[in-house]
Structures are given as C-alpha cells and as structure tokens.
Amino acid sequence: MRISIRAVAVTAALTTAAAVLATAPASAGRPGDKAGGGAAAIRVATYNLSLNRAVEGELEADLASGADTQAQAVAEVIQRTRPDVILLNEFDYVEGGVAADLFRADYLEVGQGGADPIEYPYAYVAPSNTGLPSGFDLNNDGTVGGGDDAYGFGLFPGQYGMAVLSKYPILEDDVRTFQNFLWKDLPGALLPPGWFSPEELEVVRLSSKSHWDVPVQVGRRVVHVLVSHPTPPTFDGPEDRNGRRNHDEIRFWAEYVGPGRANWIYDDEGGRGGLTPGSSFVILGDQNSDPVDGDSVPGAIQQLLEHPRIVDPLPTSDGAPEAAVLQGGANATHGGDPRYDTADFADTAPGNLRADYVLPSRQLRTLGAGVFWPVRSDPLSRLTGEFPFPTSDHRLVWVDVRVPGGR
Length: 407
Hints:
single chain; alpha+beta; Deoxyribonuclease I, Chain A
C-alpha cells in the first residue's frame, strides 16, 4: 500500500526574490527569471536530514512537540535554500503521512532562526523495506531476526524512510513504486556468490528502502522525480553484499531511464517497463557512492554520472574543501576534489564524500547548483557544525533547472 498526503491548502504563497535573498546564502540565490519563454525555473533538492529515531513512534512524538531542535534546524536549512521539490532521506515512515504533516505544519511553515516559512502543499510518502522482517537469516549469522535480517536494515518498519515534498502538484495516480522488486530479477545482478539460498533469492528485494517514480506537474510538463536511498556499501564482510546491492540499486535507475524499454522491470502494481522515452526526469537521493573515494563498488555511481540521458551539474560548496583541510585524516589521502563533497563522515574512515545527488535529464537545462555547506566564518555554519551535528552529517544539495513548457 502506498500513501499520499496533501496539505489542506493547495496554493503556496509566492515568495518574493528579495525575501529569498534575505534568507539564503549567496550561493543559493534563486533562479529567478532565467528560464525564459514559456519555461519555468525550478529548484530541486535532496537532503538526508537524519530525522530517524531509534524507536518506532519516537519521530512522531518528537515532531508533535513542535519544539524538536534538530527538526527546527533542518527546517531552517530548507527555508534558507528554498527548493520547489525536495526529497527527504532518513525520514522515518509513519503510516498516514503523520510525520510529514507535522514537519510541514509545525516546522517548515514556521520561520526558523530568522528564515521565512516555506509551504509544500503536496507530499508523497510510502512504506520502506527497512525493518520489515524477511523471515530468513540474510546475514548468515545463524539466527533469524533483527535489523540485518530485514528486507532493508532497520530496527523497526519504516526506519530511515523517505518523503517527497513539492510546491507543484504530484500526480498521485501515476506514481510507481518498486519496493517489492526482487534483486535476482535485475539482469546481471551482482548477487554475492553462494551467499543467499535459493529460497532466500525468492524474497530478497533490490531496494533497501524503495525506488519511487513520483511524477510532478510543472505547468504543461510532467517531471518524473526518481528517488531512492541505496544501502551503504559497508557493514558486511568479504562477500560485499552491501556494496553489491548499492551498485545494483544505483543501476536500477540507469536501466529505468533507458535507452532500452527494460521490460523486465515490474512495479508494485504489476506495471512493466521503464520510463517512457523522451520523458523529463530528475534522479534524487543519497546514493551512498562517491565516484573516486570510499567503499562502493568501482563504477557504481558512474552508471548515472556517465549515462547519456543524464547531466551531472557538479554542485559545489566553499565549506567542504575547508572542512577537508581542517579535519585532515582520511581526507588528506582522497583522490576526489573535496569541493564536491556532500557528507561529513568520520575523519579516520571513510572521510568526507560525495554521496548525495541531484541529476536531471538532458531536457532540463541546468541553471545553477550548489551544496549547503557554509564556511566556518559564515553565521549559517551553525546549521552544519561539527560532530555531534545540529542537523545531519549530510548536506542539502540543490540544482536549478529550466523546465520547457513549465508555465
């Protein structure tokens, strides 16, 4: 079952450019009228905001207080950057969309830290594979049960879930989810040899959380918002089952957007095939894969970055290279350019990485891009900080795109 939710109000108040510039860092200035003609300029973002909790029901209780300091801080980050469409990773799933409603009404629609409120009349949430018991010993430790034997790692159903918020209408009847797609049904899947029994292969799912195709209506154009959160390529053994799964979760979108029809793909309602050729899309999510550093299978994220239908806008920040120098450790040995980092991980290993991506299709011309990671001298660095972080160890990543026919 999938659940979609809407705010009571269906029209968001337009924010003036002056108000935006007063509340956002210069690097996140809005696209304004750059689209031209009948096109619209919209900002799309992904944010692993770490609004996950250790116990089922805890996030709902925290948000219901209206005073959760972490929720206030991540809400301010969103208010400062002001995306039109945003994916929230590590946002615990609560049936009925209750948590998403609370976050919108009591945090995003309330000004935080001097920032202007922001409204998202449309939202989409659905169940996640995390914490759902598989009934099998998937980690081969001799016992059945616990987070590592769930369809996706989690201590309770829906932990580390997802939510999509939008200022534009979500075409709810056309949403496709792929929560139940089996890993073995991906042609050429990198399944760890001999790890899963034949019986387990009949239940092991590809998505550690889920894959969603969420169509958003922007004027006369439909933009497919393709969201997921592949498993980290760590926390396993020499069989590298998580690294292999991460690679294949990323590969799913590469196959889905073509150029082939991919008739082997099936969604949770039995629909077949990938995205219709010529469709506009943006791939969003914490992909848990850096193109150069870290523990992912070599070439994992390149499946998207080098895809002929996808553009990599290469978002940067000033704060990430500063952090790499000041924190040192593993960062000093990295081969990748720290300007592109989006996550502040342990300095011993793996160091800071590029893990979070906004990747538009070629029909959507890029107008600007950035990562919300201020330098330490910037007053807004209070929202990123150092461990233990006031918000998350990930940073919000945004891209402005031109949507033809979006007005």
